[in-house]
Structure formats: structure tokens, C-alpha cells
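Support reply, case 0932

Customer input (verbatim):
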Amino acid sequence: MSPAPGNTPLSKDELAQLIPSLATQAELNEFERLNILEGAKWAFSNRVLANTDPLTEPYIRELHRRMFDNTWQWAGIYRNTEKNIGVLVHEIRNRIPALLADARYWVEKDAYSVDEIAMRVHHGMTVIHPFSNGNGRHARLLADVIAVKLGGPEFTWGTKDMVSSGPAREAYIKSLRKADGGDLRELLAFSRS
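Our regenerated output:
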């Protein structure tokens, strides 16, 4: 199975930790999609929304675990291999708490709009790239949870299918690259398109 352009390639060891027996990338994409729906159902349940803070490190890991727990043995566990994207492995455990502390400050000081806080966290998570795979999907769901928790609506993200190559995925990746340079305007616009 080879990842779509823009997806993180997995090592042989990471691929060996696939839980279901799947033969094609399309089967994997569908299996992950169903697993992610279960994760989203958990994240948006009234009990979880009311009683959890998405701006905590344990929540970050639990959300990823819930999104991929039927698919990958490493779901919810930070990566231990270097990737073609993301910070060095040894930086992950320091960068996530720093990002979350910034986000809590933005919320407390009303420094940005709800959308911008969620997008800053989303972008920060994609830069850190803490998991072996699923980082973009995780960051998007996390941004949705943050927006809802802060009283806003979920984002539309241009389309619901950004796993496959196409114009929506290309626009998303382009907006992330602009955000890498400090300009979040395209990412904010795309998230609501």
C-alpha cells in the first residue's frame, strides 16, 4: 500500500502494526474512515464535550487513539521514527505542551477569534506531526472540537473527502504551506469553504 501524495509514508514496522487484514490502499482508506467516524462520535458526545478539555496533552493522544484504535496498534502513541515532515521525534513531547499552553493563553486573553485559535492549533499540530500517520485528519477533527467547545460551529474543510488527491486536498496543502510562512488567511478561508 502506497500513500497518496501529501500523506506520510509509513515504515515497515509501522505497516506491520495494521490490525485488520487489508489488501489495498482503498480498503485501508475506507477502514480508517469508519474508524474516524467512531472517533468523531466519541469526541462530539455530550458527555465528552462537556467534561473534557481538548487543549490538554492526554486529550490529544486519546482523540488520535479513538480515531485509529481499530486500524493501527500505534493509535494514540507518538511516533518514534523520523518522517519527511514534522519536528524531530525528541521534540514532540515538548512542542505539544507549548502549543497547548499558547492556545490556552489565546482563549483566556481572547487574543483571536474562535476560528483563528482553532486554526493556529490545527496548523501547530500539522507542523509537529506527532503520530506515525493520520496527523492531518487528527488536526482537523481537533480543530472542529476546539471550535465547538468555544461556541462556534464545526469547520467544513472544503469537502469531507481530503484523503484522495484532488483540488480540495491540493488547496488544503497549499493553505498549510502559506500558514508555514505565517499567513493563516488561506487556511482560515479554506476551513470554512
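We compared this against your earlier run and they match. Two observations from our side: The chain has nine helices and no strands. Residues 21-191 form a domain with the Fic-like fold fold (CATH 1.10.3290.10). Please reopen the case if you see a mismatch on your end.
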